[in-house]
Amino acid sequence: MVEAQSWTTRRSSNPRLETSVDIPSTPTGEVRYGTTNNIFASFSATSFVSPTILTALIIASWYLSNIGVLLLNKYLLSFYGYKYPIFLTMLHMISCTFYSLIAIRWFQIVPFQQILSRKQFLKIFALSGIFCFSVVCGNTSLRYLPVSFNQAIGATTPFFTAIFAFLITCKKESAGVYLALMPVVFGIVLASNSEPLFHLFGFLMCVGSTAGRALKSVVQGLLLTSDSEKLHSMNLLLYMAPMAAMILLPFTLYIEGNVFAKTIDKARTDSFMVFLLVGNATVAYLVNLTNFLVTKHTSALTLQVLGNAKAAVAAVVSVLIFKNPVTVMGISGFGVTIMGVVLYSEAKKRSKVTAH
Predict the structure, then answer these.
(1) Burial class (CB in 10 A: 0-12, 13-18, 19+), 213
(2) pLDDT per residue over 279-298, tens digit each?
(3) Positive or negative, the Cα torsion across 41, 288, 340, 348?
(4) Residue 261: is its pLDDT beyond 80?
């Protein structure tokens, strides 16, 4: 049993949780589902807000939720002194389950899909296990590394995705795609060598988290291939969230001790913590909801471009707020990595056009 964490604030740590589930892109508009009679559709039809303004508001909400959950996690786990990242992630998963039920069964933002077989259930459970591995590694690493450096390492996901796609499915990319991955890796090497708060164990855990996230995306495309097994992104979240919470439960009890009692005891003397936890878990769900809405009102490509920019924006905001030291070489390395990710996206797009 690992000794329970203390409430003492350790300001040199920069925790960040990976709460957003890595889920497949959603077709835009009503291409897949046609017109619906749900509450959101009715609101859009009668809304006085122009489509351009509505799209801009949704994109702004996506940025605010993504960066907001990062800052709330950082404040809770580092400055506020709530030293239980695994339990906090489990609360996020419980929140995603609760809000997904309301959004799908009540507001009907997408048609509800049921798990049709034991085989499909086991596949989704396996994906949840890989997701939890990624989260646990990420949360462990974020106790040792600053948020900005974690963002830089997380941007290397395409590199690991290409590796796993080749190893598992023997899928070969074009030479241009592989060349575009070189600056992704070079930028991280550059940033790592000049990171003032570099920690080897934290770095290895963060790389494991990034690799786990890439592995899940490849395995997901491999397992849920048939039309009968494919789930809409919001339905997949509905099923994966409670599975992930169950998987995380023994980890939080073993690693973080009797965290339930400690949280209740803390809440009795500090009601503000309840507000922080509920708000944090709610924003964690909004990350997934706004992912869906951005793709619905724009495209999967737009979401990918916004994701590339989000890493840089989140890193800058975290440095401005939490004042962790950065170097010119580290910033340059991060910039090279982001440039490589953009080049990779363009190379992938050209590769698909050539293939067709």
Answers:
(1) buried
(2) 999 999 999 899 888 888 88
(3) negative
(4) yes
